[in-house]
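ZP: hey, is the nicotinamide-adenine-dinucleotide complex queued? I don't see it on the tracker
AM: it wasn't, my bad. submitting now with these inputs:
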Amino acid sequence: MRISVIGCGYLGAVHAACMAKLGHEVVGIDVDEGKIRSLSAAHAPFFEPGLDELLRDVQETGRLSFTTDMSAAAGCAVHFICVGTPQKKGENGADLRYVDAAVEALLPHTRPGDIVVGKSTVPVGTAARLAGILVQSEPSAHLVWNPEFLREGHAIKDTLSPDRLVYGVADGSEDHVAVSVLDEVYANALSAGTPRLITDQPTAELVKTAANSFLATKISFINAMAELCEASGADVTRLADAIGMDDRIGRKFLNAGIGFGGGCLPKDIRAFMARAGELGADQALTFLREVDSINMRRRTRVVELTRELCGGSLLGQNITVLGAAFKPESDDVRDSPALSIAAQLQLQGAVVTVTDPKALENASRRFPELQYEPDLETAMAGADTLLLLTEWQQYKELDPFEVSSGVTGLRILDGRNVLDAAKWRAAGWQYRGLGRP
Ligand code: NAD
């Protein structure tokens, strides 16, 4: 099939490459010339494991190209909308200007029977509004909402073998003409047994925001338990192991730590609350306000714990922060709790050096006032205190005996509860986890 993918960021670039891998003929379109130049040279403009190799592979087949010219979408039967939906400045709601602009720009290039497929995360009701705009311009075109559930760091596998596909079509019916077209797009995953759900458009939009709200709630729940564990001397990691053995609860997403961040969960729960307010259903989601505050409290808590670890004052303390990305295997620093903690510590008088295997370029653009050091050993040299804030494998594997020789103080705060506390203590370190004695 001929497919256009509009918006080539973390979601769109991976989607375009994966669709080409599946045998479709794909054009990726973005307004960012730098990104398009990089993608055209088969080089991912951000870090995602395997993406450079995949881009090289598929570009050799001639099935994948990138451009800033929207007219390249003409002749494609399916158009995926993958542009950003960030939080509005100073408000909780989602900023839909990029989605609106992408659809407007696409309209002159659609043809009868084209399918426009929304993948961006949008407030419920957006699909119906855009469908109205689309049919005014091209009465026989169709709009489907097909939310994306990929996780950065696993984006290729999640796109090629998703755990479910949701198609939100106007009448919510299996017989909708767009269903068979999307089935052809996703034929590979469907034949491998991926479940597919057909819903109406509002349900499909809500599936995504509800799923993210649930995940955020699960993380904030265990972080609230961490607060209780700290107050009572209990250990939240053992608590999570024990409650997680109940199938109905499950152990995943029950790791207490510095809280969630990134380009999705924080802005998605806020946009969801804002949209509920517009719909007169704000009470239904007031609990998300608490989920958000528990999450933001983690960052303050880590700053306080670091101050305690440093003997009561941060002034002049050399602190090395391990990790800047919001999660490992990504260079994404959007709303990264690690970086926000690093910046707070610096503001309060510490001398902060941040290291990360992939995210330093993005981090230094966001917080130019912090010091950055790509080499792990150099970053730790002379540190009074270490903070592990993003659980990259190489930080989880650090040997406390080896690390001891390079640092000035043997103090570590494990913001992700991933280190062996007993081992670090045995090596002479003052170890602090979160929600652990
Ligand atoms: P991103 O900021 O990395 O990418 C968005 C891209 O859209 C940018 O490259 C931007 O230049 C481009 N763009 C903006 N306006 C455009 C226009 N008018 N025409 C063409 N391109 C335009 O964002 P992202 O992380 O890829 O997220 C995109 C959407 O997908 C968001 O709604 C997000 O919530 C959702 N989503 C993201 C993920 C994820 O893990 N990143 C997962 C699932 C869903």
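AM: back. The longest strand covers residues 2-6.
ZP: great, adding it to the tracker
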